[in-house]
């Protein structure tokens, strides 16, 4: 076997790359939810991939994560660093698709120190924009805290930090963070989504436990946005197109429009081929369809 044959044996077709790209793009547009599977970080152009999003991508490509290597380094005074290498293996072939390395240390400030816990509960309700303006509120000395099982709006009376005396209590947390960083890195590499996602600041997006705000359920909002997009596109069609689509349900029309990317030229190609509808097991038939 010559060198060219060896390269061809390891290569995949351009069409295969396109299919993989389309699969990722479809997952991103129809399944993944902002602030749950990925996030927008100020100052960065790309979305930041979260662990939950990485798991969705691995499920799509049938990839199973395995810890290929784990190292622990003692740093003195009870501190330690964990470095982990995760490999992603195809469930059917067991072939290695990619690896990623991540590390975490108890010397990182959010683990090494404890913030001053001196606060008072206010009589004010938690602001509706508490999540969006968390940093701004914190600079003013306000934030959320769980008191007696309920989240309340508090005023912090002290911002002093002290060394965490129970550093061993977070060993497992640090190990989980190293695993998460390695998993996200491996997923971006294995699935080729670095043009869509970054991971460098992934863990900084997660809210601190003392000010956790449960994520909003975006399903209804996504449905409203999808319905508006459908109505705008359909109402803008010429009567001839509407006549061709009159026998389809709104749900099937939405699926068709979505598959065409809400592009009139692609829709025209489909209608020209006399494709009247799509089956209900179409991959676009998910909970975000508004009809």
Walk me through what this model shows.
Helix content is 37%, strand content 22%. The longest helix has 21 residues, at 171-191. The N and C termini lie far apart (56 Å). The protein has 10 helices and 11 strands. The protein folds into 3 domains: 3-112 and 163-215, Enolase-like, domain 1 (2-Layer Sandwich); 122-157, no CATH class; 220-272, no CATH class. Strand 1 (38-39) and strand 2 form a beta hairpin. A 3-stranded mixed β-sheet has the order 1-2-11. It has 291 residues and is α+β, with helices and mostly antiparallel strands.
Q: In short, what is this structure?
A:
With 291 residues, the chain is an alpha+beta fold.
Indicate the topology.
Elements: H1 3-10, H2 14-30, E1 38-39, E2 47-49, H3 51-60, E3 63-76, E4 79-90, E5 96-105, H4 109-112, E6 113-115, E7 119-121, H5 134-139, E8 142-147, E9 150-156, E10 161-163, H6 171-191, E11 197-198, H7 219-235, H8 239-244, H9 250-259, H10 264-272
Parallel strand pairs: 2-11
Antiparallel strand pairs: 1-2, 3-4, 4-5, 6-10, 7-9, 8-9
Helix pairs in contact: 3-6
Sum up the structure in keywords.
alpha+beta, Enolase-like, domain 1, 3 domains, three-stranded antiparallel sheet
